[in-house]
Structure formats: C-alpha cells, structure tokens
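Hello again,

I reread your note about wanting to compare the complex against the isolated chains. To keep things tidy I'm splitting this into two emails, and this first one only covers the full assembly. Below are the input lines as submitted, including protein chains and any nucleic acid or small-molecule components. They are followed by the predicted structure of everything together. The single-chain runs will come separately.
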Amino acid sequence: MKKELYNMKIRALAILIITLILFFSIAPFQNVFLNLLDENKAVIESYAKKFGASAMLSKLHDWNFYIFTQWFGKNFGQMIPIFAIIFAFPLFSREVENGTMEFLLVRKSRDYVFYSKVFSSLIIGFSVVIIGSILPIIYSFFTGKDFFYEYALKYIIHGLIGFWFWNSVTVFFSIFFNDQVKPILSSVGLLAITTALGFLKPLKWLNTYSYILGGKILSEGKINWIYSESLFVIGGFILLAGYYLFKNKEI
Amino acid sequence: MILKVEGLIKKYGNLTAVNNISFEIEKGEIFGLLGPNGAGKTSTLKCILGLRKKDSGNIYLNGSVSYLPEKKNLYKSFTVEKMIEITSSITNNFSKNKAYEIIDNFNLDKKTKIANLSYGMLTQLYIALTISQDADLYILDEPTWGLDPLMRNNILNLIRDLSYNGKSVLYTSHILAEVEKITDRIAIMSNGEILEMDYLDDIKRNYSAISLPKDKKTKGYLWKKLENENIWIVKSNEGEPVTIDEIFEAIVKGSGNEKRTI
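Full-complex prediction:
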C-alpha cells in the first residue's frame, strides 16, 4: 500500500491542484459570469429558448443554483470519470509494461497486490471527490453565502459511485492489457460511446454523466438510488471480473 | 530437500516450452540450470514461483524463496534508497542493513535515481535486494549477465556465501566458466527437456570425445563434422577428455539438430 500511495502521490497532487484551479475559476466569478450573460442577453436568450433553458438563465443569480449547475453539474462533475480513469489506468498495466510486476508478485500474494492497488486508487479518488464536493461548503462559509449543503452531500454520493464505476472499468482494462495506452484508450472510448448513445432516448440509462452531474438532485432534490445501486453493483461485478483475470494472469 | 519438481509440463498454445522435467535441490546446494535461449529455463523458474501456470506436474517447495529475474526491472522514478525502503516494506525477512552494506560494497550511490543507473549497476542493486532477503532458496536467473569480470567474481562470491550459510541456490547462466566455478550439480536443458543432470565433476568424468568415419553412428551426441570424420561426444571414458563447454555444446547441438542417437 505504501508503494502504491507513493506512486500516486504526484498524480493525486496534480488532480487536486486542477480541482482547486477549476473551483476558483468559477466560484468567485458569479457576478462576472452574470454580467457577461446580461451583456449578451439578446443572443443568449434566443439560444436558451431553442434549448428550453430560459428559466435557467434567471436562476443563475441564485448562488446555490449557480454552484450546483456550474460546479457539480458541469466542471467538477465532468471531471470525475476522467479522474477515475487517470488514477486506475496505470495500476496494473504499468507494472507489466515496465517488467516490475514479478518484483511484486514474488514478494506478496496476488490478493495483496490487487487489493492494495485498487484500495489505494479508491482511497485517493474518493478523497478528491469529497474534497471537490465540500469546497463549495467551505467557500460559502468564508464568503458568508447561504449554501444548501444537504444537496452537496447528495452530490458526493453520485460522485463517489460514478468514480467507483469508472475506476472499476479502468482497473479491468489495466489488468486485461499489457501496456498503458490501451487501458486509457478503452476506458475513454467506452465513456465517450456510452455518453453518446445515452443521448438516444431508449438508451438514456447508458449515459453515466447525466447521473454523475446530478440532474435528479437538482430537479427533485433526491439521490437517484436505483441508478446508484445499479452502477455500484455493475462496478462491483466488473471489479470482480478484473480480480479473477488478475488471479489467473501469466506474468 | 528444499525444492522438488516432478514431471513439469508448460505449454504456450501448441508450443511445449517445458516438457516433463523433474529435478530436486537439496539444502545448501547450488544447482545450475543451463541451456541455450528458449530452452525453457525461465518458464521453469516462473512455474516454480507461480508467475505462470503449469499444465501438469508437481512442484514441492519447502521454504521461502527470493528471486532475481532475468530482466532486471525496478521502479525508475525511485532512488536507490527509496527502492530499498519500498522493498523492505513489502518483503518478508528483509534486512535493510544488509542491503545498504552490499550497495556500499558495490559503490552505488543511495541518492541516484534508478533511471540513471547503467544496466550493470541496476543488476547490482537487484542482486543486493534479492540477497538481503533471508530465504531458504535463492532463484537467480542470469545473475551476472552484463557485469564486468571483477563484479562477476564479487557476485559469485556472494552466491557461494549463501551456500556456505546453508541456503540453496537455483541458478541459470549462459556463462559456463562461472557455472563451473560455483555449482554443485547441473541440469542441461534444451527444447524444454532436461538432457543431462548430474554433479559437474561426474559429467566431465563420464563424457569423452571420439572420432568416427562419416558413415558411422554411435550412442551419443554428434559434436563436429570434419572433412573425413565426425566427432562424437559419448558417455564413456575411452575417448579424449572434454571440457564442460564442449559437452554442453554437443548436447545442445545434438538435441537441436536431432543428431542424438541413443
């Protein structure tokens, strides 16, 4: 575990910095953003009408709505699957590609190697999701803004399960392939395909983004439990498949 | 007995890399597994370590193992010191002091990044990490490959010390001169089979070279084809004495060219 955490140190730090930069490029600029909207009101409203989003423009004056749509529902939410892929893609494939897997496997059992790698990426990834989700709470507290933190906690659940799912998918590809390029391409490709297919109404459920970005939390104030449980279970099965693949993999 | 391999078979698709081999290693013994590239040595070692799945056969291991692989790959972003720390955290019975002592003897700088080490230095570090683990059996795959003669002798002394301390060593090498220096028993592998296995001195004593007319064959290994005759290496004392290099070459050539007549 110590080695895995050490290996992830730089990636974790970089992702944390990206998260902070993203947040501080949004949160303090609500007024600037609204002024820009006002200045281009005529053009923006015509497009907003086309996409049925006229009501949304006026709601952006509300701090809660602004953070939920621009942070959880856009910038941070969009990054969660990407972060999961970044943390998971080199876990196993890099060891095989660099020829260091046998160094580990003659010292520790396959179970130990699997669990320490998967748990390390989950611990660090979950920490990033939690930090990213509580940033608005901290910011609102220091700037004296009234923030509806219960919604933020619900977004954490969606973020954690979204991270879990994409982390499991990428771990599977990282075990399946023997180089680092294929796992990242496969995971990003699958993310793109499921998102694109999810735009078709009958395949809406394939779009994990609409869940991670928390549309239901914003519209109904509720966690989408059915989708959460399904994604959690599917992620678990994919991880289990990865485990059996790793147990039987020849090094 | 520290290791017993019984009827081991390992296949990759249609290719039989290891074909029904058996051998045993006793406590305190240095056992050399020799053979040309592709003979099946590394596959055998990996099956013993559980890195590859055997197709059939039994492997009995009576104790702990420390392993030096053929390809000496370590974590390039770590320094030598960090590598020792990490190895210590994941290895049972690992002595950090012994590792530092060995790398000091090798004149390796603790603060150097592994990416900046030459292949020889990387091998030295890997050997230090392997030998600093207190194990019952040391499996060393080409431990001296790419090292200069001085360093090679240093490593051979370290391996010999292991045996003096009652540890067993399973060792593969292409360099027959060093095998002759340190091994007690050897097995010669080719095309996945063990063709000869005995104490080194007994092998040298039992084989000799004879010349026969081109049209005659005998029980043994065809070693050289001359203009008017062929040289065979046979299991008998009646011919000219031969070195281990010559016996190895004849056995491997004979097996590869299917010129072995028994």
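For quick reference: Chain A touches chain B at residues 2-3, 6-7, 98-100, 102-108, 248, 250-251 (CB under 8 Å).

B.
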